[in-house]
Design goal:
The relative contact order is 0.16. A 6-stranded mixed β-sheet has the order 4-1-5-9-6-10, sandwiched between helices. It has a two-stranded antiparallel ribbon with strand order 2-3. The protein has 6 helices and 10 strands. The chain folds into 2 domains: about 170 residues, Spore Coat Polysaccharide Biosynthesis Protein SpsA, Chain A, CATH 3.90.550; about 35 residues, no CATH class. It has about 240 residues and is α/β, with parallel strands linked by helices. The N and C termini lie far apart (about 45 Å).
């Protein structure tokens, strides 16, 4: 709860991932992917209830093992490749008998996001009296230098402007969705059926916590980053013991 407002957090995790098969339960550093999000969400200062939405029995079982509530089984028709991401959120809000002031969407494909990121996004939404707030990260590339490749392989600029910068340093900073945290007022979200409108505000997250796992390459990168972090921690502990 925050400023007297109740907060529901939803983790959507279907079993039919195509880019990385069974990615939501793939183990990295001894934990299934979905568990990384469960653990951080449970550390939040503001989340009153954390639930998982899934149609997959194995994912449901693993989520419960890691302390996440699963109050219902998601209908299979809402777990297809072409199911819009907002649908499982709206379904959960409509199925639960309790009403909450705010809803938070936490995708398991953002395993490096922390409880501080979650709470920071919630705080931004509340403090600015915004209807919705989502996390962003600074883009490494400017759309000024992006192109559409036509059928005959000709390059067409994505943005047509006479004042395009010639140096990276002169380009305006731009930001992209990182998929880590989505927050919205519940009644507003039920009407809009999207977190993203002109009313939505942004919460900036650093690049190192903005990994969004969509491909096998992303998963390998996550495994490498996790291994490096564990090795660094073990080195620090070992060094501290030597100094003692």
């Amino acid at each position: 709860m925050i400023e007297g407002k109740t907060v529901l957090a939803i983790i959507p995790a279907r079993g039919g991932s195509k880019g990385v098969p069974r990615k939501n339960i793939r183990c990295v550093a001894g934990k299934p992917l979905v568990a990384w999000t469960i653990e951080e969400a449970k550390k939040s200062k503001y989340i009153d209830r954390l639930i998982l939405s899934s149609e997959d029995p194995e994912i449901i079982s693993i989520a419960r093992e890691w302390g996440c509530e699963v109050p219902f089984v998601r209908p299979y028709e809402l777990a297809q490749d072409d199911t819009p991401g907002i649908e499982p959120v709206l379904h959960a809000m409509q199925v639960l008998p309790e009403e909450y002031d705010y809803v938070v969407l936490l995708q398991p494909t953002s395993p490096l996001r922390t409880a501080q990121d979650i709470d920071g996004c919630i705080e931004r939404c509340i403090q600015q009296s915004a209807n919705a707030c989502v996390t962003l990260t600074e883009s490494e590339k400017s759309p000024c230098w992006m192109y559409v490749l036509e059928n005959d392989h000709r390059m067409t600029p994505l943005l047509v402007t006479e004042t395009a910068p010639t140096r990276r340093q002169d380009a305006a900073k731009v930001y992209v969705l990182n998929g880590a945290v989505y927050v919205a007022k519940s009644d507003w979200l039920l009407k809009q059926r999207t977190f993203l409108t002109y009313e939505t505000v942004g919460y900036l997250m650093p690049k190192e916590r903005s990994l969004d796992i969509d491909t096998e390459f992303d998963m390998v990168l996550f495994e490498i980053l996790t291994s490096l972090k564990i090795c660094k921690f073990e080195y620090q502990v070992s060094s501290a013991k030597v100094m003692m």
